[in-house]
Amino acid sequence: MAYEKVWADNPKLNKMELKKLKKDGLKIFEDIPYYAKHGFSSIPQEEWDYFKWAGLYLQRPKEDGYFMMRVCVPSGILSNEQLETLAGIARDYGRGLFDITTRQSVQFHWLRIEQIPDIFDRLKRVGLSTAGACGDITRNIVGNPLAGIDPDELFDTREIVREVYEFFQHNEDFSNLPRKYKISISANVYNTVNAEIHCLSFTPAKKVIDGKEVLGFHVKVGGGLSSAPYLAQTLDVFVTPDRVKDVAVAVTTIFRDYGYREKRHRARLKFLVADWGVDKFKEKLIELTGPLPSKGEDVQKGWNPGYFYGVHRQKQEGLNFIGFNVPVGRLSADEVFEIARIARQYGNGEVRTCNSQNLIIPNIPDKYVDAVLQEKVFERISIRPNTFTGYSVSCTGTEFCNLALVETKERMRRVAEYLDQHLELDVPVRIHMVGCPNSCGQRQIGDIGLQGIKTKTKDRGMIEAFEIYVGGTLYNGGKYNQKLKGKVDAERISEVLLQLLTYFKETKLPGETFLAYLDRVGIEALQTKLDSILAQVSTVA
Q1: Is the domain of 288 the same as that of 433?
Q2: Tell me, what CATH number does 465's domain have?
């Protein structure tokens, strides 16, 4: 159906909005065959931004003509055929690199425009798509990676996620949003999708209606990270599973028609929700959906930020899912082929990606569990990773990303390895490293967040450095981590973290988590310790 661009006459539209009025982002799919035939030099520079709608970003440096590609994986669920197709793309075109993102997508690098049509054909044959993986559009829908097998879910959300995802795919009624737009849908009671950081989240709830207990969702709106992070707020509505798509469409319509389009840095839904408040937002939602019941009972019990290491019973008798650590989310194509073979040989072929950049192999019968764990590929991709390696997350960084200020992916791997070699803890500490304020590595929710910056020194000019944030959690509604004063030379970050975490070990109680420790001693204790460390290591202050 056609819709009216009610913002079209706004004289203050930013430059990108003016471009989108002339050409919808999804139209790039029609142009790519021509560009592929005539080469990168045939692409006008003013067209580069449109490639985002096809899940493509130009790598750093843009002029070299290499693309990064994201592939949408709703709820992180991949069939064996899909996984092998992705591995083949990584092998044939992506120099063997296969990255899992913090939104359960799969990411490739080093792609040339000439290769894109064949990649699209391969993806289409197995039901995968890059549409909406980037751009001002609905992104990949994050879901419970255990959907359908989960003892801790109220009900199976796979078909709900699929319905919503397919509605927005290539839908030009919703491909011109003010900015990127992120949805999560989960019925797991431990918030495996980080619901509070999304624009729109459906979280498990129940309500007595006409004397009968009904299972469904509560709705959170207005979450988001970047340089102005907001926690999503809960609307006073209860949504039954059959109405999730209606509500998702209505919320997206509100964002499309009322979201801010004057300044790109204020164009996310979180700013509209913050300005309107949840009561006004609910009123506008009801105008579009018709009556919805008021909130019921929130059944969430806690927060699992995407970690499922080890062997676990499924709700299907005799079957297990096994959670593996993928260090900073990076696999080789050869490893992915091996994982696909193992999933096919011992399970039903499925593999599932997590927002912690890790993976799960489900549906393993009891009798095959030991055989799976003895496979050689699972020496590096372990069910029992070392403490810091197992709980480290990283964005792409300057290796490929034009927005990043510092190198992150390999650095985070090395930092975690260094800490594992020098320090043992009785609790995990989640460390998230990001290369810029956009926070694709979700710095704000880490126990420790490391944000890359450039800073000026007297003797070396501009150098890569990090700011340290502590205390992020999404437990019980959530709170974002707080910045400690001081800037740490990137070359000294391992040493500084080791001293800071050694102090934590020496002053914590047995079994005390990093968050509980902060609640007990306060952020000032860590600030004082960091001040003394920075003075000793002669780093950037």
Answers
A1: no
A2: 3.30.413.10
